[in-house]
Task: structure prediction
Amino acid sequence: MNALARTLIASALIAATAAASAGPRHHYGPRYHHHHHHHRASGLGALAVGLAVAVPLIVLANRADRAPDVVYAPPPVPLPPPAPVYVPSRAEPVIYPRNGQGSAQLEADHRECNRWATTQQAAMADTSVFNRAVEACMDGRGYTLR
Result:
């Protein structure tokens, strides 16, 4: 509760309590003739007025102390993971012997070029590097790849 609100509430309650306990004022003198009736109604009325001022101030001060209402938006809906990108591998190249090699020699050379391609840097992690290494090897052994 802030200091101003506390001061206003305390002042209203003190004034109301003082007015309620003071009771009616008696004026004695030649012009006033008063019976000795104790009128507490005016004191209670002042107390009621003091409370009517203090209670709304207490409510307002408590509202001011409260943290503002925070509206929480639901978290965004997560997007589905991206679909894997499939790069279609090239079809196995057609190998043409340039120097009259037979099918047994072609098989042996192809096997040897595949083995050699695995020794090349990044060939085992990247298919395109592996394929280029095999093609270079086969070209060096006298084959045309298409």
Remarks:
- The mean pLDDT is 76.
